[in-house]
Design goal:
The complex is a heterodimer of chains A (111) and B (177). Chain A has 111 residues and is mostly helical. Helix content of chain A is 77%, strand content 0%. Chain A has a single domain, classed as Orthogonal Bundle (Helix Hairpins). The model of chain A has no long low-confidence stretch (mean pLDDT 88). Chain B folds into 2 domains: 1-87, NADH-ubiquinone/plastoquinone oxidoreductase chain 6, subunit NuoJ (Four Helix Bundle (Hemerythrin (Met), subunit A)); 134-177, no CATH class. Chain B is built from 7 helices and 2 strands; from the N terminus they run H-H-H-H-H-E-E-H-H. Chain B has a two-stranded antiparallel sheet. In chain B, helix 1 (7-27) packs antiparallel against helix 2 (31-51) and helix 2 packs antiparallel against helix 3 (55-79). The termini of chain B are far apart. Classes of the chains: A mainly alpha (111), B mainly alpha (177).
């Protein structure tokens, strides 16, 4: 019961792991490429949650200005924005050529 | 500095919202519904950032993620027609293998988080107590400051990455270059 009432870094790590798994399941099982991209966003957010939680832990050791985890989280958000823009651009080109949004219909490299 | 109020209650509330939103994202047929669920997840995560004393990251999360990236997603969902995709099979043929692989990854997570060395788990368990600091100012000085700015180069590289992404998105989405 004590572990339920005191929220520690581990709680955030477990939540991040659960979100990461949901994102992995979405990427591996869904056909709709828009939802695959959203699952990738879920994965990136799970990592961000871990980074900020560790940043809080690190602050407790090294003082208030040790914010490296938060800075890294901001870089991850930047990467997510770039990835979403390019990914959705590819999606539009894909939809124009194939008239579908299903990832398993992209099988040019298949035997 | 005010001590946080009812931390466990808000943590579990926001965590449950995030998990429920994540499950809705990967199970809905309609991509717009998935996007709405993802926005809920992102906003709940911004609340968790506030609980971790990261107000700047929380603001960036709301403005950039929930406000910017998700609007981009919704625009693209409107550009492509999703009616046909809704009537089709939603999961691919390898879904069972995918779930087994994700389960193996989950087992790995459980193994790591329950590993003990000398009777203690690897990650800190104690209650987190830390006061509010000048968060935004400290992040700004890490990013830009001449003396303490360790991330100035990375910041410039990030701007280059965004430039490449802009060009890439335009090139990909344009009919003929």
């Amino acid at each position: 019961m004590d572990a339920m009432l005191h929220i520690s870094t581990l709680h955030y790590l477990v939540l991040g792991a659960a979100l990461f798994l949901l994102g992995v399941i979405g990427v591996l099982t869904r056909r709709n490429v828009v939802i695959v991209l959203m699952s990738i966003e879920l994965i990136l957010n799970a990592v961000n949650l871990n980074l900020v939680a560790f940043s809080r832990y690190w602050q407790g050791i090294h003082g208030p200005s040790a914010l490296h985890g938060q800075v890294f989280a901001i870089f991850v958000i930047t990467d997510a924005a770039a990835e979403a823009a390019v990914g959705l651009g590819i999606l539009i080109a894909f939809f124009r050529n194939k008239e579908t949004v299903n990832v398993d219909e992209v099988n040019l490299l298949k035997w | 500095m005010n001590p946080p109020v009812a931390t466990p209650f808000f943590f579990y509330l926001l965590a449950a919202t995030m998990i429920a939103g994540g499950i809705l994202v990967i199970t809905r047929k309609n991509a717009v519904h998935s996007a709405m669920a993802l926005i809920t997840t992102l906003l709940a995560q911004a609340g968790l950032y506030l609980m971790l004393y990261a107000p700047f990251v929380a603001g960036v999360q709301i403005i950039l993620y929930a406000g910017g990236i998700m609007v981009l997603f919704l625009f693209v969902i409107m550009l492509i027609s999703i009616e046909r995709a809704e009537k089709e099979r939603q999961f691919n043929k390898q879904w069972l293998v995918g779930i087994v692989a994700a389960g193996a990854l989950g087992g790995l997570f459980i193994a790591v988080y329950t590993t003990t060395t000398k009777g203690k788990i690897l990650f800190p368990e104690g209650q987190l107590t830390y006061g509010e600091t000048q968060n935004t100012q400290a992040i700004g000085s890490l990013l830009f400051d001449r003396g303490a700015g360790q991330y100035m180069f990375a910041f410039e590289i990030a701007s280059l990455l965004l430039l490449v992404a802009i060009i890439g998105a335009v090139v990909m989405a344009k009919k003929r270059i």
